Amino acid sequence: MKIQGEHTFDAPRELVWQALLDPAVLARTLPGCERLEKVNEDELRGVLNIQVGPVRGQFQGTLRLSDLVPLESYHMRLEGSGPAGFMNGEGDLRLADAADGSGGTVLRYDLDTQVGGRVAGVGQRVLDSSARSVTKQGLEGLARELQALKAAAVPADVGAPAAAAPPPAPVPTQAEFAARVAGDIARDLVPPARRPWLLGGTLLGLVVIVMLLARACGG
What we know:
The protein has 219 residues and is an alpha+beta fold.
């Protein structure tokens, strides 16, 4: 499965590069990320809760970075597995200044991924749609983080009291993430006339799951 595209961020390249190497930022950015920690300078290890069509599962894996060219690019390799199957992939991320002179940064990504197990049984169209949804949510999350980092980096006027640190960027809940993936799949694959009842049933199912989890956690 191919995942490629580009996204323009309203932030300088230095800030984007810094964010792409920060485990704390990535943990808040990656949809479904439960934990992400640095093993060494070029390797991260974490836990992701992934929704691919009707299949949802927890994956434990590693992210290895190589061929780092500061402020320009790096190669990444992801290996993850869990009860629902496995997800592996590798490819390149590249940064460039926005051509319009706005001071923004263009991120270009080109990744090849492979999936197996139950998660692969949903079919190629659902896999592609899920990947687009997860990628879009991840880029939106990174954009929110960059705006918070930009606000924190603005120097205060001389003699003025120090400004309070901006609140952390809001992170969607697992239920919101899953509902967004389900909605994106419906828009991609379901005829318009059939979408209302499908989305309604999906959201109702998610509400029931959340209520059952809350009840279990409460006793």
